[in-house]
Amino acid sequence: MFLLTVLEGLPLFGMAVPGHVAIILAGFLAKIGVFNVWWVIVVATLGAITGDFLGFYIGRKYGMAFINRLRPYFFVSDAYLAKAHALLDTHTGKAMVIGRFSPVTRALMPFLVGTGKTPMGTFWIFNIIGGVSWTVSSIILGYVFGAGYHAAAGYFGKGVVVAVIAGVIIIWGYRFVNMRFHIFARYELFTLALNVVALWGLAVTIQDAWSAHSFLANFDVAVNMFMAGHVTPLWAGVANWVSTIGGTAVSIGAGVLVTIILAAKKKWRSAAIMFLSIVSTAGALGFMKEFFMRARPDNALQVIANDPSFPSGHAGMAAAFCLIAGYLLVKRMKTSWVKRELMIVACAVITIVIGLSRLVLNVHWASDVLGGWALGVFMATASILFVRYASTLVVFKKNNPV
After folding, report:
1. b (16+ CB within 10 A) / e for 282-295
2. How many Cα atoms occupy the beta-carbon half-sphere of 283 within 13 Å?
3. What is the pTM of this model?
4. How far apart are CA 363 and CA 337, in angstroms?
5. Distance of alpha carbon 253 from its chain centroid, rounded?
6. How far is CA 87 from CA 61, 74, 104, 124, 132, in A?
7. Which tens digit of pLDDT belongs to each residue from 255-265?
8. Residue 153, burial from CB neighbour count under 10 angstroms (0-12, 13-18, 19+)
C-alpha cells in the first residue's frame, strides 16, 4: 500500500497505478480484522505525502520537458493537462487538495506545482493537508463498506461477497485502463461481462465445495440419482465416447496445437490468448482439485477416475478451449452474422455436451461441472483482456520510440 500510494504521486506513472483502490481496500480489510486501522492511516498518509513530494521535486528539477518526453507512452491528452492547469490557476493550495480527489489530476498536480514558483513551505503545508484528508476519507469509505461485509457474508456467503468485490475491482480496472489507454474494443464489453458472471458462478461452487453444509448437495444428489436410474447402456456408451473425445488431455493438446499454428503464421496475439487460457485453466484446475480433495460419486458408469472431483477438468478445459476458439474464429467472420451466430452456438453446445457427459457417467457431481465451466470461462476471458492490454502497449511503444 505504501509503494502504491508513493507511485500514484509520480507524474504520468501514477495514472496507471491503483493507489486509491489500495487505500479503500486497506480500510475494508482493517474493518474485517486483517489490518490495524491506525497503521493503515499512518502508512497510507506517509505514502501519499512522499509520493507528492517526489512529483513536486521532479517538476522543480526537470520542468515540462519531463512530461512532454514521456506522455505518449501514457496516452496523456491535452485535455488532461488543460484540466490540471485550469485547477491550478484558481489557487495553488486549493488545487493541491482538490486535485488529489480526481483520478485525472492526482498524478499531475504535484508535478505541475513543482514547475511553477510555489515556495517549498507552502507546498508542504498543502501537501500534508491534502494527504491526510485524502487518505483518511478513502480509508473511512473502505471501513464503512467493511462494516456491512459481515452481514452480507452471513446472508450470501463469504465466497459470493468476495466475488462481488473482486468483480467490482475488475470492472473498475477495465474502465480505469480504457479511459487512459483506449485499448479495448466495444465488443470486449461482452468479454468483461462473461468474466464477471463466471467469477460469480465460480465463487458459488467454491463456497459449496468449502462449506461444511453444502447448499448444492441436494441438487448434486438428485442429478446423480436421476442419471443412475434413467441412463441406458446406449446413452452411457455415447457419453463415454463424448467424454473421451472431449477429455482434458485432448483439449490441452488441441490448444497447444492451435497455439503453434497461430505462432507459425505470426499471429502472436491470438497465439498468446490461446496459450495463456489453456495453461492458466489447467494450472487452476490442478490446484483446486488438490486443495478441495472432493470425493467422486461411488456409482460411476464405465469410467472410473481416481483424481479429486471438484472442479471438473473436462468441463473446465472444454469451456476454455471452445470459448477462445470461438472468439478467434468469430472475429474473422465479419461479413456473415449467420456464420458468427452458428459458431457461437456450436462452441457453447460442445462445451455443454462434454460437461453433461460427465454427469451421465456419474463420475462428477453437478456442482463439479458447473464449477469447471465457470473456471474455464473466467480464465479464458481474463486471458483475452490481459493479452489485449499487454499487446497493445507493446505495439504502441514499438511504433512510438523515444
Report:
1. bebbeebbeebebe
2. 8
3. 0.63
4. 38
5. 26
6. 22, 21, 11, 19, 20
7. 999 999 999 98
8. middle
Tens of pLDDT, residues 92-148: 667 777 777 766 667 777 877 777 777 888 888 888 888 888 888 888 877 777 665
Q: Which domains are seen in the chain, by residue range?
A: 2-147 (no CATH), 159-399 (1.20.144)
Q: How many beta carbons lie within 10 A of that of residue 140, not counting itself?
A: 14
Show the cell assigned to 353. Answer: 455436451
Q: Which amino acid is at 402?
A: V
The number of residues making up the chain comes to: 402
CB 86 within 8 A of CB 52: no
Which of 48, 37, 34, 73 has its CA nearest to residue 394? 73
Burial letters 34-48, b for 16+ CB under 10 A, else e:
ebebeebbebbbebb
Picking from 309, 249, 313, the residue whose alpha carbon sits closest to that of residue 281 is: 313
Report how far residue 151's alpha carbon sits from residue 262's, in angstroms, rounded to the nearest whole number: 49
Asked whether 329 and 263 are in contact (CB, 8 A), the reply is no
Compute the 3-state secondary structure of the chain and give helix, strand, coil in percent, each to the nearest 5.
80, 0, 20
| Closest to 107 (Cα-Cα) out of 67, 139, 140 | 67
219/61 Cα distance (integer angstroms): 67
